[in-house]
Design a protein that fits this description.
CATH topology: TIM Barrel
Oligomer: single chain
CATH class: Alpha Beta
CATH superfamily: Aldolase class I
Bound molecules: flavin mononucleotide
Radius of gyration: 20 Å
Number of strands: 12
Number of helices: 13
Shape: globular
Number of domains: 1
Strand order of the largest sheet: 3-4-5-8-9-10-11-12
């Protein structure tokens, strides 16, 4: 440990990115961007979280320039003149409020919404642009169905290129870095996960091979930006298709998973858990971000139920397994298990969450309710 103890309000640096504090707005899809274009409402929504003190904003998932990237026309694109004009405004507003912002680059692969699955039922197949490593489609509580052929090498190359193109756009537009969405069962995670990747070529097989698609995406993003342009990668064990899924079962597998990604140029791993306090492997209380930092030597971010009150956690997940107070989070931050703290729903319901925590004004915090999802307050 060095110097002063690390707190939520200690500065942090990774590559060219300097943050005033460790609070990060976690990426949250809001579906308020008709035709893929974010307007004034979205700019105000992000600006209020920046004014409320969050050190960094990771935008909601935004589609890379590939036809199969999206599964909802109301989610934003990261390509095309109108969509990028919307993002320029958001970037300016967040910077003017003294915060930093990076877009989360997203491709859904074959984790498609119910409407598209219904289309599949009716027509017998998804659109030709919907791609996944081995063609498996399926959502939560639905069996994985092999609905498409394996992605071809040309399709793989096109998607790698699409991520590289979006990274270059972010770099040229003056965003403060990028986050690649490699979590929650979307395209990159479909390559990571053995249940959805049955390939027998260089992109499938052992953990090492299943990482190759993402590794090439990271390399391409690095090649088309700059050596110090921050590249975050979001990973998770859990999938939108299965909350109990495990990408890696032990620290050794985690090491095989992380090595190629570190070599390709990831600066920070955003380690998504549903509950930050849950230990990842037996024999240690380290969570996923803790293990990833220990094994990779890279910076990490934790996320998962930070700032949600105990009653809500109990109603969402059943009995809370341990006290989940902020003190527990701060202890882990102080002992340098991870570097940044992602806050999702608590910031969605309360733009001033960060400043209220800074002032210790806990009684002023707005409790999270699902109704918050219905508007852009
Ligand atoms: C409405 C909503 C939308 C989300 N959209 C995304 C997304 O676009 N990309 C992503 O990686 N995670 C997404 N998530 C997950 C959050 O980033 C975060 O990991 C999760 O909500 C747990 O953090 P929290 O307990 O602080 O909310 C979303 C979560 C919510 C509630």
């Amino acid at each position: 440990m060095s110097g002063n103890p690390i707190t939520l309000f200690s500065p942090f640096r990774v590559g060219s990115l300097e943050l005033a504090n460790r609070v990060v707005m976690a990426p949250m899809t809001r579906c308020f961007s008709p035709g893929g274009v974010s307007g004034e409402g979205m700019a105000g929504y992000y600006r209020r979280r920046a004014e409320g003190g969050a050190g960094l904003i990771i935008t909601e998932g935004t589609h890379v320039p590939h036809w199969g990237a999206a599964n909802d026309p109301d989610c934003p694109d990261f390509h095309g003149e109108a969509a990028l004009a919307g993002w320029s405004r958001i970037r300016d507003d967040v910077h003017a409020a003294g915060s930093r912002i990076i877009p989360q680059l997203w491709h859904v692969g074959l984790l498609v919404k119910a409407e598209l699955e219904n289309l599949y039922e009716e027509k017998g197949e998804l659109g030709p642009h919907h791609v996944g490593p081995s063609g498996f489609v399926g959502g939560m509580d639905q069996p994985l169905i092999r609905a498409r052929p394996d992605m071809t090498l040309a399709e793989i190359e096109a998607v790698i290129n699409a991520f590289g193109g979006a990274a270059m756009t972010a770099f040229r537009m003056g965003f403060d870095g990028i986050e690649i969405h490699g979590a929650h069962g979307y395209l990159i995670d479909q390559f990571f996960w053995a249940d959805t990747n049955h390939r027998t070529d260089d992109f499938g097989g052992s953990v090492r091979e299943r990482v190759r698609f993402c590794e090439e995406i990271v390399r391409e993003c690095r090649r088309r930006t700059a050596p110090d342009f921050p590249i975050f990668l979001r990973i998770s064990q859990w999938k939108g298709q299965d909350y109990t899924a495990r990408l890696v079962r032990n620290p050794k597998e985690l090491e095989s998973f992380l090595g190629p990604l570190v070599d390709a140029g990831v600066d920070l791993f955003d380690c998504s858990q549903r509950r930050f306090w849950e230990p990842e492997f037996d024999g240690s209380d380290l969570n996923l971000a803790g293990w990833v930092k220990r094994i990779s030597g890279k910076a990490t971010m934790t996320v998962g139920s930070v700032g949600l009150d105990r009653e809500l956690i109990e109603s969402l997940y059943g009995q809370a397994s341990a006290p989940v107070s902020l003190e527990r989070l701060l202890d882990r931050l102080g002992r340098e298990d991870f570097d940044l703290v992602g806050v999702g729903r608590a910031l969605l319901v309360d733009p001033n969450w960060t400043d209220k925590i800074r002032r210790g004004a806990v009684e002023e915090l707005r409790p999270y309710t699902v109704e918050a999802l219905a508007s852009l307050s």
